[in-house]
Amino acid sequence: MGAVVTYTIYLVISISLTAGTGLALSRSGRVFLRDVFGGDDALAQAVNRLLVVGFYLLMLGFVVLAMRPSGQITGARQAAGVLSVKVGEVLLVLGALHLMNLAIFRRIRRRPAALTTGPAQRGPQAPAPLRFSPQPGIPPRDPQDVH
Predict the structure, then answer these.
(1) Residue 17 lies in a domain
(2) What pTM does this model have?
(3) What angle do CA 29, 31, 36 make, to 5 degrees?
């Protein structure tokens, strides 16, 4: 079994694992983010897509970088060893990226409601109080400070 066959098998396995994990993250993340963003489906989908694209870019970048040849592959036993190490590395990175996604979701969920809901969800906001300066060059002050 030569290097070309070994690395072709590696690519098929790695890309399949990455695609499957990305789809699972996308499905589960969409539901979670919809809840986090107070039912704002458009915002939840947009954030979900951004997270999934980042996941794919990081993961596929790692898959390609891990294709560095690790020596001459002369037999089936050596090919199986190289494949097990390479696929193991991919699985470890997939797990780390999955945990990173969970940490991001957790951080988003902890944000105050005013930051995670859209403008329609927040309701009307009171206008900012007017600030004035009695003389040019003096910083403005709050109207409550006027005697």
Answers:
(1) yes
(2) 0.64
(3) 85
